[in-house]
Amino acid sequence: MKRHYFLLLLCVLMSVATTLQAQTVKGKWYGVGNVNIDGSANNYLCELILEQKGSVVTGEFNYFFRNGYFSNKIKGTYNATKRQLKINFMPMIFYKTVDAAMGVDCMMEGTFTLKASKIETTLSGRFTSDDLHTYSCAPINVKFTKLLKEVPFQQLVETEIEKQAKDTLVRPAESPIQKLQREASIQLNMRTKEIVKELEVSEDSVRIDLYDNGEFDYDTVSVFYNGKLVQHKQLLETRKPITFKVAVDSIAANNDLVMFAENLGTIPPNSALMIITDKDHRYEINLTSTYQKNAAVRLRRKKE
């Protein structure tokens, strides 16, 4: 009798667990979006971070495309009976874009179906445009997998990029410096860039001094100049600066100096004082970087 009661209770608990799982899409999801056009190799490395209250769903949709990282706040609904998630229209960069900084957006909405098994929980479906742009903005198919443990999106992107590289070609032999530059560039492009100041300089090179801004709290930064790593994982101090020089191209319209936060120190966010000096100028700029945003200064060479 007790055995029958135990089996009945177990069945009820399993049924309740399955029902609860079908009623919520809350959590962190990761997937690869593939453009639904023959011959297109472009893809989107995607992350969904969802919250749910009743049938209302809110959260973030983050994705990495070519050389850019993008983040959108999203809203939608979840129908527990149909196990269907709908995401309202939001901007996604056009799949034929070559340079993410110069791309245009397509307004896309998403429809996904929840499937749960002992092995994994997935949201499978696609992003589609409105009727007016059906032929220009192709559908993007995505199978999201629910993450059962906390894994940084950056780490997932790096893993996927490495996997794609192995699947498509044999990577040429790299020097340690080339490998470091490549891996650092991946990290750089996964965060947004905020131009804090645009400065005019007189010489073809300038001196850069970086200090911890205020109290020493173990802030560590890397610095990129025009996409190239020039300082790697340097500790910011209040008395002794990180000092280096950069050449300012007189032909290029922009020369961007980017501070990348390697950590947030003991007093977030990661903040620094950057001093830029040439023969005619001495600029002092306060910079703040986080895991989502890189602070940047744009240099322009003064025309003779």
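That was protein one. Protein two is written in the same sequence-then-structure order:
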Amino acid sequence: MLTSHEKEQSTKRTDVRLIDCDVHCYLHSLDELIPYSDEWLQKMMNFGKFNNDFLKNQTAGSFDFPKTRYHNPNHVLRLDATTPNGGVPGSSPSFVIEDLFERFQTTYGILNVGHGTMSSYHNADVTIAYSSACNDWLYDKWIGLDERFKMDMVVPTIDPQATVKEIERIGKKSGVVGINMQNISIPLGKRFFWPVYEIAEAYGLPIVLHPDSEGSGEYAPSQFIGPASTYMEWHSSLSLVPQRQINSLLCEGVFERFPNLKFVFVEYGFSWMPHLMWRLDKNWKSLRDEIPWVKMLPSDYIRRNVRLATQPFEESFHPKDILTIIEMIKAEDMLVFSSDYPHWDGEYSTKIFAHFPEDLKKKVLYENALKTYRFSSGKED
């Protein structure tokens, strides 16, 4: 929750433009999807029987989005971001504009659905139909309202052919700037996903990875050593996911095969990257005969193909230590700003970048995202 001082500070206009790569939008009710759904999907998801705030206790037999088995004992959303009419935080486009964009002077905010992407859902047909309905709802309700809203389309990750069809259906629409492809139990480097990467690269759309249902559901990856016992333990272990996925993408040759495709890891932090880069570089020098398709230093591929959102910003004992990490691995072009609005641990003040040189601040807050996501012209307006 923002203090009055933080709100006052955030209203001050920055001297650089800003692209927020992780703004969460929510359904207030499943019934919002009725205009975009056929009768079969409405029946499968119990539309019309679920008119209350979906965060409240649900009645027996009603549909529930797949979600992690862990919950924040306070709340995962900022309760001070509840809409003026008492709606779910992030469910009102006009209030997001007022509560976030106007205070940050946001140039563009990239929307990632917060209520669930269904990538770990057990019924592939429901996942496919829901993804299309959700994308149409998101485009009509949000993108059409204000040109500052952009969106990462959701896709049925468990079915790559259906994912390709959904990208073909809406991937060239103005305002669609990325593909939100959540984690499932198949490592991202596997050839299972290559048809998706081929069309994503052709369309100029980055692949976005964001926490959703890790640790639960039949399609969600475990965190290697078994389930956590608490939300604290689970939340603090999320950085294991991008380390494993980047390792897979690199070693399977995805970065070599799709040199222009960017992978954006959102809400995983970034201070773990030196270890991953250095370990991959060291092992490649001795084991590259095993993966001859990896022709450059792994760290060079990672700098070219991987982008990391800044939230959660790991605050060290000495603020300048984070800057040292960035300089050590030459990550100046890899970082993109994200607020994670309206989550409890979001970044609601750019003062965390106070120690950054101005040229680096401009890259992180605006320029890197402009070059990574597929904006209308690919150039600054």
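Residues 124-143 form the longest helix (20 residues). Keep this in mind for the problem set.
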